[in-house]
């Protein structure tokens, strides 16, 4: 809708962030359905640690 109103074409890096958020949401939903609480907690801990180190 914003593209139509402003007539500005989004660049690739503008589209990358929403796509990454969508992939994160899919992974989170899959993990919520398929993983146990202890396994999910371990994955979350390591993901946060990796993010902080990066």
How many helical elements? 3
Q: Which residue ranges are poorly predicted, with pLDDT under 50 across at least 5 consecutive positions?
A: none
Largest sheet: none
Average of the residue pLDDT scores: 79
Relative strand content: under 5%
Radius of gyration: 16 Å
Coarse morphology: elongated
How many domains? 1
Assembly context of the chains: single chain
Helix content: over 70%
Structural class comes to: mainly alpha
DSSP summary, beta strand count: 0
Query: Terminal Cα separation, in Å?
Result: 34 Å
Tell me about this structure.
With 54 residues, the chain is mainly α. The chain has one domain. It is 83% helix and 0% strand. The protein has helices at residues 2-6, 12-34, 37-53. The longest helix has 23 residues, at 12-34. The model has no long low-confidence stretch (mean pLDDT 79). The chain crosses the membrane at residues 12-30, 36-53.
List keywords for this structure.
54 residues, mainly alpha, 3 helices, elongated
